[in-house]
Amino acid sequence: MIAYFKKIPFLFVAVSPFFLNSCASVFQDDDYTAYFGGEIINPNSENVYLCRNNEIIDTIKLDKNNRFFKKYDSLTPGMYTFKHEPEYQYIYFDKNDSLMIRLNTHEFDNSLTFCGRGDQKNNFLIELFLKNENDRNASFDIYDNDLKTFEKQIAAYHKEKKAFYERRKEDIEWNEDFDIYAKTMLDMPYLAQKEIYPLAHKFRTSEDICRHLPKNYYDFRKKIDFNDEKLTHFAPFVRYLTSMMNNVSCREGGTDKSLENNIKKLEVADSIFTNQKVKNAVLNNIAFMYMLEDQNMMNNNKFLEKYFKLSTDKEKQKEIKKIAEATQTMSPGKRLRNINLIDSNDNKLDFGSVINKNTVVYFWTSEAKSHLEAAHKRASELKAKYPNWDFIAINIDDSNEAWKTALKRHGLNGLELHATNFKEIKDKWVITKIHRAMLINADGTIKNAFVSLFDANFENYLK
């Protein structure tokens, strides 16, 4: 069990007198003054971003001591996020809250603490988040179990967290708006596990349990408000929706055909979401994920035709079109568009110049340590098994220094390159998820630009 957060005193409060004064102030009904500040240990960049609904509303620079402080004359109460690339976390502001954060980027979520007016609610959120992450990381094997055992286990996890939620709700006495987020963070991971179970059980045990589920197995869906705009960009809710959408075809027999599956997801989204804003957000998520998994151009056109018919979000439609156009430049036989790369000696390289034989290209960031280690271990094993293939690791950190530090810390001495402009590699090579890998022919042409080192059938490409 994760211990309760201890309140860590901030050693730099003397530099923030407005923050201290605000804690004792009496605010007027029409006064929405709020304060946000903190300290970032081992920062990755010089900025902290305050965001709402995935849009940056303020960019705050760190000072020479890696601290920041900002007074807002008017800040609408509600859920926000703060970002220190590439990580982010939630922060909830009530009227006149004065919140200070402290975190170490080497352990971003685990080190995060809040203090000041409004700190209790936010410390509750991060602790519940960590409990969920701890359960998720420790629960992969539960999907091997029979349905009765599985449901008993996840119910026990949920019961424990619900008791924690109820204690803190009583102690803090938070308002109904905050409770929407607290309850969602409590319930959605639990319900997502129920959505995941039929497919994960089949994948892990080869037993197709879908047709044998009780008729009332999905009754919990009836209690979910799918059209609450406040939850449109809230990660626990979005993850649940992703799990549900992946599961929609299960009771109908299922299919391994990506196009049919994803068109079905669009149709389900159209049927259950009546709020167009929420519907657009879900349709966009389905489209983004699909465009990165199925690179059959005819399939893409069929999918996009359906997506454009249902979506009214013109801006996101432009982004989807941009991804579709970029993927067309990465079909087999074509050459990758050039991007800015450097080696560990800061030498600028042309990508084509480092291709001498069949090559696997994979990606990593120092902020995803488990993937960093797993990807390099997998590449090393494959290199020993298939010496006729080269393996190039490309780091996508914003900071050149962070990349070099990670190289030394992890003893990485293979063919390591750094992409100096993440937006460029994202746009030209469609790198939107770290698990992507690419297969390049010895002549520099593309063999397959959309694979994963951890695909069960990956070695077939190397034979």
Automatic annotation (TrEMBL):
UniProt key word Magnesium: no
This protein's UniProt keywords: Signal
InterPro entries: Thioredoxin-like_fold, Thioredoxin-like_sf, Thioredoxin_domain
Signal sequence annotation: 1-24
Residue intervals of the Thioredoxin domain: 330-463
Protein name according to UniProt: Thioredoxin domain-containing protein
Organism: Flavobacterium luminosum
